[in-house]
Amino acid sequence: MFRSQKGISVVTAIFIITVIAIVGTILAVQVITQSEETGNEYLSTQALYYAESGAYSAMIDIYTNNSLTQSTYDFGNGRANLTVSQNGNLWIIESEGICGDTSTEKYARRKLRVIYRH
């Protein structure tokens, strides 16, 4: 090896280690971001299911009792809040599904409206 080339292998090794570290950091950030997005999608889907379940429960309640007897349905780690109005034989059911811990930012809300003829 020539005298002028002795330090080149150290510089090359440092460069390669730096590139590998940068690529590793980028991949780690991507994995963390996708994991959070998956969690948010799960909460949002569960909130929609809770809203749908609340609306269906309200329709059964209206069909059975001709009125709404509950305005909130609890489903383990979530709930459905209901608002109902009546116009003749049409019932407008607004159901808001909430999933997760509302005291933190790890929760989701989904709303839907159902027009039910009874």
TrEMBL record:
Keyword check for Transmembrane helix: yes
Transmembrane segments: 7-29
Keyword terms: Membrane, Transmembrane, Transmembrane helix
Protein name: MSHA biogenesis protein MshP
Biological source species: Thermotomaculum hydrothermale
Gene: mshP
